[in-house]
Structures are given as structure tokens and as C-alpha cells.
Amino acid sequence: MSRSGVPTRAERVYAELRADILAGRRHPGDRLPFADLSARYGASMGVVREALTRLAAEGLVESEPQYGFRVMPISPDDLGHLTEARRAVEPLVLRLAVEHGGLAWEGQLVAAHHRLERTPDRAADDPDRVSEEWASAHAEFHEALLAGCPNPRLRAVAASLRDAAELYRRWAVSLGSDTHRDIPGEHRAMLDAALAHDADAAAAALSAHIQHTTDVLLTRASTALATVDDSLIDPATSA
């Protein structure tokens, strides 16, 4: 951000490209040619490279020698590794938030949950797609959960892992949802445990929430990915 508070061109390109990836306007496995991105976002090659480097650090794109960058492909193995990392980091950060968060943190958490609980989870014009409003409210709630942690580096690691997982959530929604799952109930359990300052229960609820999502996605992916275009699947995991 510039001193005037106006985003710089590099920040704007990064934010716009990141939004396009998370919204599915850039498909998993899509190549990201510098010339095309420069024209699309009205920026120089250097600015585009800076944006891609930041997105690569977040796990949203990857660099391929001699080929440039592409959106991260779908990979069940990678999702398993990502889930393992999230379950190691995010419950730890939540424990610290519960132990150190004060009234201001509790108030922000309640407000974020209130918004999430009252936001429709499906797009009005496409019932098979998660609404952008719900996705935003969901991210805000999970950010609020961990915001009470006093360690900014741990919060940054957790945020990066959630960003990487968001790409899987957006693209897995078309595989269908688990009708036996009570997602609002899972969020309520995390909220109640956090407000009760029960760090063990809060961490366990968050860990189970993360794992449950992955289990659902991997179950459906085992069948659905077999019919997806090969360019969307990591060749290391599609054999």
C-alpha cells in the first residue's frame, strides 16, 4: 500500500489475479503467460512477475522451469499434505487465541459468526456454486477465530495455508456436498468453545472441521477427477 493509502499497481495486479484464481476464473492447471497477464491487468512484465511470485509463496500458483507459471493443479496428494499442515498449525494458533484473546477479540468473533450464519451459502443464480458473499463471510470467521493469537508469524502461516485450501474448496464444490454434514453446527461448536475459553475443545473442533472437509472432497474426487481434463490434474498423482 502506498503512503497515500491507495494500492500500488503491483498490489492491484496481485489482488485482481488472486481474486480471479480463487473465484475460478483461472482454472487449476491453467498456464499464466506473462504477455496475456500484462494485457489483461494493464501492467508491466515486472509487476506481473512480482504478483506471480507472491501467489506462488501462498501456494496458489507454481513455477515450472522453461514453462513459466500456472495455477496450482488439482492434486489429492497435495490436499492431504495441506490438510496435515493445517491441522498442525491452525489448532495451535487457535489455542493461543483462546488463551490470549480479550473482549475485543470475542466481539469480533461473534460479529463474524453472525454474518456467516445469516449469509446464504449458495449463489442465487447458480445453486451449485458457493456464493461470493458466503465465501467472504466464511474466510472472515476463520480469520477472526485466530485473530486473538499474539504471534503474527504464526497467524501469517495459518492464513497462507487457508488461502491454499480455498482453491480446493472453490473447485470441489461442483463435486457435491455431504448432506449428512452440519457445517453451521461445526462453526457454532468452534465459536462456543472459543467463547468458553476451552482451548482443547476449540482446537479439536477446528481440526475435525478441516479433516471432515478434506475427507468429503477426496471421496468425491476419487470418482470425479477421473473425468476431468488431464490438464487440471497433477500428473504425479493421476497415474
Counting DSSP E segments of at least 2 residues, the number of strands comes to 4
CATH top level label of the largest domain: Mainly Alpha
Share of helix among residues?
Answer: 55-70%
Major sheet details: 2 strands, antiparallel
Instruction: Give me the number of helical elements.
Output: 9
- Average pLDDT: 85
How would you spell out the order of helices and strands?
HHHEEHHEEHHHH
Across the major sheet, the strand order is 1-2
Gyration radius, rounded = 19 Å
- Write down the domain tally: 2
Please identify, by name, the CATH architecture of the largest domain.
Up-down Bundle
Residue stretches low in confidence (pLDDT < 50, at least 5 long) are 224-233, 235-239
CATH topology (level 3) name of the largest domain: Four Helix Bundle (Hemerythrin (Met), subunit A)
The CATH superfamily of the largest domain is identified as GntR ligand-binding domain-like
Structure classification: mainly alpha
Distance between the termini: 44 Å
* Beta content: 5-15%
Shape: globular
